[in-house]
Amino acid sequence: SSSLPVFSQEEVTKHRSLEDGIWVTYKGGVYDITEFVAMHPGGDKIMLAAGGALEPFWALYAVHNQEHVLEILSDYKVGEL
Ligand code: HEM
User: Fold this and answer.
1) Which of 33, 34, 61, 78, when mutated, tests ligand 1's pocket best, judged by the most ligand atoms within 8 Å of its CB?
2) Which residues are CB-neighbours of 77 under 8 A, at least 6 positions away?
3) pLDDT, position 2
4) Can you tell me which atom of ligand 1 is nearest the CA of 69?
5) Residue 8 and which of 31, 64, 80, 81 are 20 to 30 A apart at CA?
6) How far is the centre of ligand 1, averaged over its atoms, from the C-alpha of 9 (Å)?
7) Domains within the chain, CATH numbers bracketed
């Protein structure tokens, strides 16, 4: 039971720059990670997922398969897909 808004994929895709905000999706959640990108331990690679899904990238970079990474992500949740 979430009170967060529902966004379309089209809306998420509009957010892929620091100007417009950087949004990603993960397992049906929408995350505004604009404030996190400069703190990302993996640097600019995070921008490859801007406006889209994290899953294909996190499948390649298994370092994200840890509880503490999901805790970071959860701080940035803004809605549901
Ligand atoms: C490392 C978070 C997206 C590539 C990390 C680490 C965190 C993190 C916490 C350090 C993990 C550790 O060492 O314990 C996130 C979050 C993301 C995100 C919250 C999305 C919101 C991505 C994407 C890519 C990526 C999309 C690739 C396209 C990497 C790489 C490292 C890394 C290569 C390893 C850096 C190193 O140790 O040299 N990320 N990441 N990340 N991330 Fe991400």
Assistant:
1) 61
2) 4, 29, 30, 31
3) 61
4) 9
5) 64
6) 23
7) 9-80 (3.10.120.10)
